[in-house]
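note to self: dont lose this again. the chain is below, predicted strucutre after it. 171 aa total, dont forget to put it in the shared folder this time
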Amino acid sequence: MSELKKNGIGKIISIPAETVILSEGTINPDMYKIIKGHVEVYIGYGTDSETLIGVLGPQSCFGEFGLLLKKPAIYTVIAFSDVLLMRITEGEIGDFVQQNHKNIIDIMRNMAATMMTMKLQIELLMNDLKSGKSPDDSVLRDIRKTMGNYAINRYVDMLGTDANSSYNELA
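---
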């Protein structure tokens, strides 16, 4: 990470592609707003249960759980491309809210989408358990694939029809 400048609220930092920005299970007291680039959001990153749960692009925020709750991150965020981020600290959140009203709605949408993702995952597991299946490796792989597709589709829906081609061009 390299710090570029201070812009009144938050520091603007540059992150190279494939860098872990936020790690699941660690406490990070800062929130980030994407200025340029894309990030991928995972649960279980680097494990057999690694699951893509989201793709975020410019104007999206992440890290709000650590900033607001002082709790460990519930996901890992990886820079998909080179990324410019605004890092917002607890001391700056009030000014950020006053100057970035739209982002507050986006943060609420992100939190709601995270809850919907968790609900979908629980429903998939419950359906398997109700049908008498134990969640073996193939079931868990299917769930991870479904969750990844849901994450990409949610990103495409958020940005419109051109987002899928835009994301595929980055891949």
